[in-house]
Every structure is written in C-alpha cells, then in structure tokens.
Amino acid sequence: MSLKKDSFPSSAAFDAINSSLQSDDAERKDAIKKGNAIFAFTLKNKEGQEESWHIDLKDTGSVGKGPAPEGKKADDEEFGKMTAGKTQAQRLFMSGKLKVKGDVMKATKMEPVLKKAQTKAKL
User: Fold this and answer.
1) How far apart are alpha carbons 32 and 92 in whole angstroms?
2) Which of 3, 6, 9 is closest to 21 using CA atoms?
3) pLDDT, tens digit, for every residue of 48-73?
4) How far apart are CA 50 and CA 74, in angstroms?
5) What residues contact residue 40 under an 8 Å CB cut-off, 6+ apart?
6) What is the DSSP letter of 110?
C-alpha cells in the first residue's frame, strides 16, 4: 500500500523511506537502535490542508499514515526539499519552516534515515 497522497507531492518520500527500511533487515535494526523513537510528520500543502505520517524507529522500523505523539511540522514543498537532500532539517528548523514538537535532540536522529532513503530512491 502506497503512502503517497497526490495532494502532497513530497509524500512520495515516505514510500522511499519505508522501502529503505524494509529492504535490509540489518539496516532496519540499526535505524531502530539509533533512532529509538517514533517520529511524526504533519505536512501542510499549498491549499492549506494538513496530513500526517509517522516513522516508527522504536519498535517496528516501519512507516505509516496518521499522527504520533512527537512530531515535526513543515509545508509540503520544504519537506520535499529536505527529503531530496536540497536543504537540511536544521536550517529549516532555525528559519521557522520546520516546527518540532517533543524532543528536539531525538528529531536530529532522523537525518541518517533520510539520507539512506535518498541514496536508494530518486526523490
């Protein structure tokens, strides 16, 4: 089942992240060990609609739709740039384009997972 939603073009990144996590059991276990949290992303598109996805790096090493207790908020375009490696999450956070709810230090543990997904898929 695809996690992509057409009204959120950057949501295709969640399929790439999930594919990356599911393709190699050792890498998935490593990501869970390093992440040790569940990350939620709430994206806002140009029409002002919001949609949520989450990445479980605490138990299952999987990606799904729906909110999670801790999360990040970004607009769809900026999230697309971040997942494509065109900008860094820290830069978006410092400029107010990425909002983090929960533990900011845990949020930084998502960067290696995003980088692995970038190398395995064209985003």
Assistant:
1) 24
2) 3
3) 999 999 999 988 999 999 877 666 67
4) 10
5) 52, 53, 54, 67, 68, 69, 70, 71, 72
6) G
